[in-house]
Amino acid sequence: MKEDVTNIIAPLMVRPITRWPFFTFLGGAMFCLLASSACHLLSCHSERISYIVRRLDYTGIATLISTSFYPPVYYSFICDPFFCRLYLGFITILGVAAILFSFLAGFHQPKFRTLRASLFFGMGMSSIAPIIHKLILFWHQPEALHTTFYEVLMGILYGIGAFVYAARIPERWMPGKFDIAGHSHQLFHILVVAGAYTHYRAGLVYLEWRDQHGC
Ligand SMILES: [Zn+2]
């Protein structure tokens, strides 16, 4: 709440830092959840619609992961355009590659379940490089530690989500008992929303940090 208020007041008091990386992340998160909702709502319509919306779902996940890099990378390396472009370029190319990969005919077969989870997990884990780089540069600034705390928490939530999805927990232990509620896919979606919200909180800390300290 305090960060929300500060972010509303800060632009009025100081020269605000650009908001586009933060809005890119919010747009990516909204697109992911919208694509996912469309997938769950429409995939039972017909084989043709299911084919389209399942690809849309994976496009949404890749978009969420890629756009999640924009606030931390942009605001951490705002004074270092080389690393800013390097990290953002890397994750953007990786995101586009993951989307193109998901359009391959065999990608959605059940036997590739673990590969699909690993692909997104790997994309997320590549964020370790810019986060460690940020800590090396700004270890003495409380905002760097504060945002890293949120990022580690987000990583744990997404990591558990990917594991639950790949390992089919808990229905693997009691098949048929979780078809209505408590299914791994439902737990996975709850964890994704929790992870995105944690990242939103980190984004607010980045905005406050750069609004007050600039480059
Ligand atoms: Zn889903």
UniProtKB/TrEMBL annotation:
Classification via InterPro entries:
AdipoR/HlyIII-related
User: In which compartments does the protein localize?
Assistant: Membrane
Membrane topology, as annotated, equals: Multi-pass membrane protein
Question: Any idea which UniProt keywords this protein has?
Answer: Membrane, Metal-binding, Transmembrane, Transmembrane helix, Zinc
Q: What are its GO cellular component terms?
A: membrane
Q: Which residues form the signal peptide?
A: none
Molecular functions per Gene Ontology: metal ion binding; signaling receptor activity
Quote the record's binding site residues for Zn(2+).
Answer: H40, H185, H189
Q: Which domain of life is it from?
A: Eukaryota
Q: Which residues cross the membrane?
A: 20-44, 56-74, 86-107, 119-137, 149-167
What biological process terms from GO does the record include? response to hormone; response to sucrose
Query: Would the keyword Nucleus turn up in this protein's UniProt record?
Result: no
Name the protein family. Belongs to the ADIPOR family.
For this protein, the record's PANTHER family field holds: ADIPONECTIN RECEPTOR PROTEIN, ADIPOR/PROGESTIN RECEPTOR-RELATED
Q: What is this protein called?
A: Heptahelical transmembrane protein 4-like
The organism's lineage is: Eukaryota, Viridiplantae, Streptophyta, Embryophyta, Tracheophyta
